[in-house]
Amino acid sequence: MKNSSNTVIPISTIGRARPAVAVPDVAVPATGLLLDRLGRPMTDLRISVTDRCNFRCSYCMPKDVFDKDYKYLPHSALLSFEEMTRLARLFAAHGVRKIRLTGGEPLLRKNIEGLIEQLAGIRTPAGEPLALTLTTNGSLLARKAFGLRAAGLQRVTVSLDSLDDAVFRHMNDVDFPVADVLAGIDAALAAGLGPIKVNMVVKRGTNEQEILPMARYFRTHLGGKVVLRFIEYMDVGATNGWRMDEVLPSADVIARIHAEFPLVPLEATTPGETAQRWAYTDGSGEIGVISSVTQAFCHDCSRARLSTEGKLYLCLFASAGHDLRPLLRGTASDDDIASAIGHIWQGRADRYSELRALRGPDDDSGDAGGKAPRRVEMSYIGG
Asked: Which residue has the higher pLDDT, 365 or 347?
């Protein structure tokens, strides 16, 4: 594994130092409401279905690290769809109401429609179906959109960092054309997978000039049907060479758009929502900004993340996960596994972004003054 300035820990080794997950002595029953140490409920579960991606975006899977020699997880290590569905059902019993499928690139996982069909059959304690969404780079969306909708998927979020073809090809680093992603968005709309969210990671000096063209396009061509969201370039993982001077604050993004298209703030639709919402005053839709660097939103974060090999992560910036796979493939009952999940969440106190804001983004020290442990890569547990 090579990198000019860091020794990269292979994905398969991340989290090995954490003790194996055990069934707690005191049972944690699934009551539909599970709170962590800071009083935050668990309402959203993000499931990574693969650690592979066909793009090599520099902020996520830079080509100099994730090259032809990179060792991905073997198929035997991945959770089966039945194992993912079993866990999802137990998470729903604890209060999860929304599941987002991520990757890597989730549409690379063979027969992903089969997993969606299984997840669509899960009900909350109140008897309601789960909200099922998926985040994709859009490269395979045109051919899969109708099948995904037929399987029970409700919405998609598409990552798109530029409308300029040269800029987009440079950022995805595999020479993939922007026109094919736009075709995927059109297909998703035609299939009924809307409203669609389009996420643009803004990296100062790379694609900040694309903010207004993106806003203009989705206002003019797809006004109201697509919610464009701008994400601050984040310090996720250890391979993307993140620097604070490459972060364009969301406040600057809003100011640039507001100067051309006046905006008014909107209230959040649900507690724990990651994006701050803004509406165009002329009624032609809305945008959002996700400001995890400049405006931490840890205080109401209600998201759990499950890796493709069954490790439970409690924060996007975590350094280790809780391995549930031995329980799944052992003799543990559903009640045992649900109790283990409950025990893990009840001990959660993660608030990385808030702590970073307190000590400064360039301070890499740990909470006890030592070197901070290496964070998990975003490509491994999704964004």
From this structure: 347
2 or 235: which leads in pLDDT: 235
Tokens 């059109």, located at residue: 186
Q: Is 363 exposed, middle or buried (0-12, 13-18, 19+ CB in 10 A)?
A: exposed
In the structure encoding, which two tokens stand for residue 122, read together? Answer: 């899960």
In contact, 48 and 307? CB cutoff 8 Å: yes
> Does the predicted model carry a pTM greater than 0.70?
yes
The token duo for 68 is: 């032809």
pLDDT band at 298 (very low <50, low <70, confident <90, very high): confident
Where b means 16+ CB within 10 Å and e means fewer, 319-355 reads: bbbbbbbebbeeebeeebbbbbbbbbbeebebbbbeb
Report whether 119 contacts 85 (CB < 8 A).
Answer: yes
Radius of gyration of the chain (CA): 20
Residues in the chain: 383
Most confident by average pLDDT, 2-6, 60-64, 262-266, 296-300: 262-266
Query: Which segments of 173-301 does DSSP mark as H helices, in order?
Result: 178-191, 211-220, 250-260
**Cα distance between residue 116 and residue 152, in whole Å:** 6
Nearest Cα residue to 94 out of 40, 29, 36: 29
